[in-house]
C-alpha cells in the first residue's frame, strides 16, 4: 500500500532517487538526505530566469551595458548610459544584479536597465 504513495512523489532533485518520502510539509531523500518543500518541487524555484531589457537571458559572469543614465541613491554620482559592467552576479530581489562599477564601486542594478554585450 505504501509503495503507491512513494511512486507518486517526485524524485530527488539532487541525486534523482525515486525513494523520496514525506516528512510533514517536506519531501526527504533517504539516499542523500536532501530535504525540500513539496511546493518547490512543483514550481521548481531554482529555475528563475533573469533577462535583460531586450530579453536576453543573463548568467553569472556576463558583461552588460547600462542603457539609461542611473542616479546613485544617496550620492551625486550618475552611472552614464553605455557604461560597461563586467562579471555580474545574479541575486534574488528587486535589484537582481550585483556588480562593481569602475569609479563608483559595488552596487546593485535592475536587469531592466542593462543590455547583454
TrEMBL record:
Gene3D superfamilies: 2.20.25.10, SH3 Domains. Residues 8-37 form the Protein YjdM N-terminal domain. Residues 50-117 form the Protein YjdM C-terminal domain. It holds the Pfam family Zn_Ribbon_YjdM. SUPFAM superfamilies: Prokaryotic SH3-related domain, Zinc beta-ribbon. Belongs to the YjdM family. This is Protein YjdM. The lineage of its organism: Bacteria, Pseudomonadati, Pseudomonadota, Gammaproteobacteria, Pseudomonadales.
Amino acid at each position: 500500500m505504501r509503495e503507491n504513495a512513494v511512486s507518486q512523489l517526485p524524485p530527488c532533485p539532487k541525486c534523482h532517487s525515486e525513494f523520496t518520502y514525506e516528512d510533514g510539509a517536506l519531501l526527504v531523500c533517504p539516499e542523500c538526505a536532501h530535504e525540500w518543500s513539496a511546493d518547490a518541487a512543483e514550481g521548481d524555484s531554482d529555475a528563475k530566469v533573469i533577462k535583460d531589457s531586450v530579453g536576453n537571458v543573463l548568467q553569472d559572469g556576463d558583461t552588460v551595458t547600462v542603457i539609461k543614465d542611473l542616479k546613485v541613491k544617496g550620492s551625486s554620482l550618475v552611472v552614464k548610459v553605455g557604461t560597461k559592467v563586467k562579471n555580474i552576479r545574479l541575486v534574488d530581489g528587486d535589484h537582481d544584479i550585483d556588480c562593481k562599477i569602475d569609479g563608483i564601486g559595488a552596487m546593485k542594478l535592475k536587469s531592466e536597465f542593462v543590455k547583454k554585450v
